[in-house]
Write a structure and sequence with these properties.
This protein has 300 residues and is α+β, with helices and mostly antiparallel strands. The chain is built from 11 helices and 7 strands.
């Protein structure tokens, strides 16, 4: 499945039809492209144009350059202001989307999802609109790691834009206060627990694609592991920060780094306390990519 193309669309593997993501990118730029003009573009340019439509801010100059050699040429239209994409009025929603709520979820939808639902509603095709709603809203986010037959596969990110990406993950360990105190005093028989955990976390982040089957190998530009120890509470907190300039995110690299660091702490202290518990590994925040930024809301 091509990233940016929905399951309810049928553009074909070579994008012989115009996907909604590409149509959105063109509309935002005030351009209309015929099917002949679309198919006159190279498949690579068609894929990039689809990718542009998945972004929250379409690169107008890039889109104009992509369609510059289309035959016939793109014609100018009134550019679409995505802020004017209003949800269906209640009566239309009742007729076209029975038993489905749209108004309450509309603000949380991506620009492409709002465009797709508005476009299909204007065509008055309840069956296709309902399918789009179930994919975009009712069924939650599309699982891009599954193909049309439900088989796992590595997502094609070749058409995505290279952007700066960052993620922060946290791991927490619970142990006896006297065990935590050994970390502060560097009193473990195996040596400096904190230093070893930091190095292990950095090494682990670099091996993420070897450990997690569907992760892409990426070039990390920065990895940092910070440990804090609350000895009286018997609590060790690990913060792992990863950064890259890539086509895909670094959330998994941050979480693997935090996990490996936590496991290393357990390994170095298990001879003293077998009951150490790794209580939590969570993503705290991520920046970059077309899905935007994320901050863990329920975090204290």
């Amino acid at each position: 499945m091509i990233d940016g193309v929905f399951a309810f669309e049928t553009p074909g593997a070579a994008l012989t039809l115009l996907p909604l993501a590409a149509r959105l990118a063109l509309d935002v730029c005030g351009l209309k492209l015929s099917l002949a003009g679309w198919t006159s573009l190279s498949e690579a340019n068609r894929r990039v144009l689809v990718s542009e439509g998945t972004r929250e801010h379409v690169d107008v100059d890039a889109v104009n350059e992509l369609v510059r050699n289309a035959v016939p040429a793109a014609t100018p239209i009134v550019a679409l202001d995505v802020a004017t994409l209003e949800p269906l009025d209640p009566e239309a929603a009742r007729l076209l989307l029975p038993n489905r709520k749209l108004g309450s979820v509309w603000p949380g939808l991506s620009m492409l999802a709002r465009f797709a639902l508005s476009h299909l509603a204007k065509r008055g095709d309840p069956e296709r609109l309902a399918g789009a709603y179930d994919e975009l809203v009712g069924g939650g986010p599309r699982l891009t790691h599954l193909d049309a037959k439900g088989a796992a596969h590595m997502v094609d990110v070749g058409a995505k834009s290279v952007t700066q990406r960052r993620a922060v993950a946290r791991a927490r360990l619970r142990m006896r206060p006297e065990t935590a105190q050994l970390i502060l005093e560097r009193g473990s028989p195996k040596g400096d627990v904190g230093a070893c955990a930091r190095i292990a976390g950095i090494v682990g982040s670099k091996r993420t694609s070897d450990l997690i089957p569907l992760c892409h190998p990426i070039a990390l530009t920065h990895v940092a592991l910070d440990l804090s120890v609350d000895a009286p509470a018997g609590l060790v907190t690990i913060l792992a920060t990863t950064e890259t300039r890539e086509r895909t995110g670094v959330e998994m690299e941050a979480m693997v780094a935090a996990s490996v660091a936590a496991l290393t702490i357990y390994d170095m202290l298990k001879g003293i306390e077998r009951g150490i518990a790794i209580e939590q590994v969570v993503l705290l925040e991520k920046d970059g990519g077309r899905s935007g930024n994320y901050r863990r809301e329920d975090d204290a």
